[in-house]
Amino acid sequence: MALRPFMRLSRHSETPRPRSPLRVVGQRDVEEAGTLTWTRITDPDEAASLLPAWFGSRMIGLRGRFGLILTTGDILRITSIGALHQSSSGTVLLDVLLDHGGIPDGIDLAWQPKRYLGTPVPGATVATVNLAHVVAAVEFVAEETVEQPNDAAVLTGDDVEVGPAQVGSLSETIERANEVTDT
Hints:
Blueprint: E1 7-9, E2 16-18, H1 27-33, E3 38-41, H2 44-48, H3 53-59, E4 66-70, E5 75-87, E6 92-98, E7 116-117, E8 126-130, E9 134-139, H4 170-182
Parallel strand pairs: 5-7
Antiparallel strand pairs: 1-2, 3-5, 4-5, 4-9, 5-6, 6-8
């Protein structure tokens, strides 16, 4: 007997019954699924092995201005990933510190139409995000241009004057130091 999608056999009969894709999870469903165990990971090196490289090495334990692009297209603004939680089924949850919402300063025009989510109310800075809902991560940092020094600012070997070497005994060095401090 072939079953159609969203159909399952009743426990007490062989007749398939329709099943809604959305349903309330009852106690029986929890008992059938078993118990999940969760592992909390705060070590950046250990987290890097479970996350894409940039997540683990750059965002865990460090503070910055980051955005998580969600499957909805919204961008969740965060300052850090505090920890991650991995379940026995493989689900990964991220504990994040939220940044304020709104468009970041200096953002490119192409990014301005996006919705930037942040703290819902002042002081509510902690959230948990399912990694399966994160498409990409970006860092919002203003790039600073570093000027190359001009030739006049760089001393060459001919411009450096070396004074006479004044190497002597320890007592002579102490005596010269005392002369400098006395004057």
